[in-house]
Amino acid sequence: QHERANHHGDGTGSSQLGKNRLHPDPSDSSVNNLLTKWVFEPNSEHKFSATYEYFKEDVDVDPKAKISDITFGMFKQLALETNDINKRQQLTFRHDFNLKTPLFDQGFWQLYFQKNSVEQRSFEVREMIKGGMVTERDRLSMFDNKSLGLGAEFTKLLETQSGITHNVTYGLSARQNRVSTERTGDTRMRPSGQSVEREAFPNKSFPDSTIREYGLFIQDRIGLMEDKIELIAGLRFDHYRLNPKTGTAYESANPGVLPPAKVSKSQFSKRFALLYHPNDEHTLFVNYSEGFRAPTFGAVNVGFSNPAVGYTSRSNPNLKADTSKLYELGWNYTDEKHSVALTGFYTTYNNFIDELSSVGKDPESGYLVYQAVNLDKSYIYGLEAKARFELMEVQNGHGSIGLNVSAAYARGKDKKTKEPMNGVDPLTLTMGLDYRFDESFYVGARVKMVKAKKASEISTSMKETGVGRVPGYGTLDLVAEYKPTDDITINAGIYNVFDKKHWSWGDRMMQTSPRSIERGSKPGINAALSIKIDF
After folding, report:
1. I need a surface site. Which of 163, 274, 322, 364 has the fewest CB within 10 A?
2. How many Å apart are CA 27 and CA 385, to the nearest integer?
3. 396: phi > 0 → left, psi -120 to 50 → alpha, else beta; which?
4. Where are the beta strands (DSSP E) in 190-281?
5. Distance CA 151, CA 172 (A)
C-alpha cells in the first residue's frame, strides 16, 4: 500500500507544479509477497519446520512539488523521476522439542538466512540559473545486507519440597550481518551529452562492514504460595562487534573522511519483577529491566557531502552504546468477557544515540555538519491503558457487542538541556464499539482522538527548522471483516468519515514549509477493501 492522497484529494487530481502544490506527489507502487511453510511432526516430541518468504516492493514517484522550483538559488528543476525497489528473502529452519532431561523439558533452536537489497534510482533535468546550461542527472544508490543467525532457547521446571517452583529459561543468540553500499551516477550537458559530473563515482557513503552480535540469557520465574506470588530474576549478556573494510571507494571517493573505525561493545543487563495474583482474574506487578543499544555502522562510519545543499555527514568513532533503565507498575484484569490492563512507566537513558544531530559548520567548506552524538541523560515517563468490555450477548451466545478503549500518555526531556524529547507522541485516546458473530463476522465503529502537540513540547532546535504546534484532532472509522471460510478473509473500511483535516506528529516533524505541511495532511474520507486468501 502507498498513500496517494491527503486531505486535499488524490495526487493525480491536480496539475499544479512547484512549492505551491497542495496535493501529494503522485505515486504508483506494487507489492509481491510470497510466504510458504513446511511442517513435519514425526511424533509428539519433535516438530520441524521450514519457512521461506519473498517480498518485493516497487515504488515510482512523480515529485511534482519540486518541478519549476529554484533550488538553493542555483538551478531550476525541469523534470524529476524516482524509483525505489526493496527486496527481501528469508529462509528459516526451526526444531521444537519436548524432552524430559536433567537440563531441559522443552525448547527450540533455529537457523535463518536473510538477504535485503534496496535500489534507489533518480533522473533529473536541471537548468542552471547562471548561464542557462541544461543538464541531465542520473543517480543509483544500492544497499545490500546479508544476515545469518542462530538462536536457541531451553526451559526447565523445578519444584522443591517446600512447594516453591522454579521455571528456568535460558538460551543464546548469534547473528552476523554483512552490509555493503555503492553510489553511481553521471551528469551530462544537453544536447551534447558531454559529462560534467563533479562527484567521484563509484563511491560509498558507508564502508562495507561486518557486524557480529552475540547474546546469552537466563531467567528464573519463581512461584511462591501456590504461585500467588511470582518473582522473576533475569540476566542477559550482549556483545557487539563492528569490523569495517578499509582501502575501498569509501575512503578514495570521500577526501578528508576519518579512517573506518572498529567498535567492540559488551553489556550485562538485569531484570527483576514481582507479580501478585490475589485470584485468577487480577494481577498486580512491578518490573525493572535494563536495555542496551550499540551504535549502528552508519553512525560510527559515514562519509557523504552534498555541495548543492551545503551539508556533510561526519563519522563519530567515539560513540558510546546507549543504555536504559525501565521501571513499570501495573495491574491486569481478565475474565471470560472482560479485560483491563493499566501500566505506568518511567525510563531513563544514558548516552542516548541521536543519529542526526546538527553540530555546527565546517570551518573550511562552510557546510552544515551532521553527526551522530550521545545525549548525556534523558527520560521518558507515561501511562498506558487498554480495556475490552463485553456489553451483551446476542443470538443465543453466538454474537456479542463489545466496547474497546485504549489510551497512551507520555512525556520526555533531556536532563541536561531540559529540552523535550521530540519522539514522544501526544496524548491519544481510541474508543470502539463492535459486533462479533462467532469467528466469521465483525463490524465496528472506532473513534480516535489525539491531543494537540504544544510548542512547549517541541525542542528549540526543531522549532527553529519551522516545525511548530500541531493541532489535535478526532476521526471516526467504520470497519468490517468477514470470513466465509477458514482460508478467506475480506476486510473493508470507510476511514475519516467526517472528512477531518489532520496531521500525525510523526509526519509533521518532517514538514517545515507551509506548503509541505498542506501536502503532508492525512487523507480525507476514504475507503479500502482487501481480500486475503491462505493456501
Report:
1. 364
2. 38
3. left
4. 209-224, 229-244, 263-276
5. 6
Give the tens place of pLDDT for each residue, 477-525: 999 999 999 889 999 999 999 998 888 887 766 555 555 666 667 888 8
Q: Which residues of the chain have pLDDT under 50?
A: 1-4, 7, 11-12
Read off the pTM. Answer: 0.83
Distances (CA, A) of 532 to 34, 38, 483, 485: 13, 20, 10, 11
Instruction: Return the residue matching grid coordinates 538553493.
Output: 72
pLDDT in tens, 378-413: 999 999 999 999 999 888 888 899 999 999 999 999
Q: Domain boundaries in the chain?
A: 395-535
The residues pairing with 92 across neighbouring beta strands, listed in sequence order, are 51, 112
Query: What does R_g of the chain's alpha carbons equal in angstroms?
Result: 27
Under a CB-based contact definition with an 8 Å cutoff, are residues 443 and 490 in contact?
no
User: 422 pairs with which residues across the strands?
Assistant: none
Distance CA 76, CA 66 (A): 9
Q: Within the chain, what is the greatest distance between any pair of CA atoms?
A: 91
Alpha carbon 459 to its chain centroid, in Å, reads 22
Torsion angle (degrees, nearest 10) of CA 280, 283, 289, 292: 70
- Looking at residue 362, its amino acid is D
Sign of the dihedral through C-alpha 516, 517, 523, 525: negative
Give the position of cell 531484570.
271
The pLDDT of residue 253: 80
d(CA 276, CA 283): 6
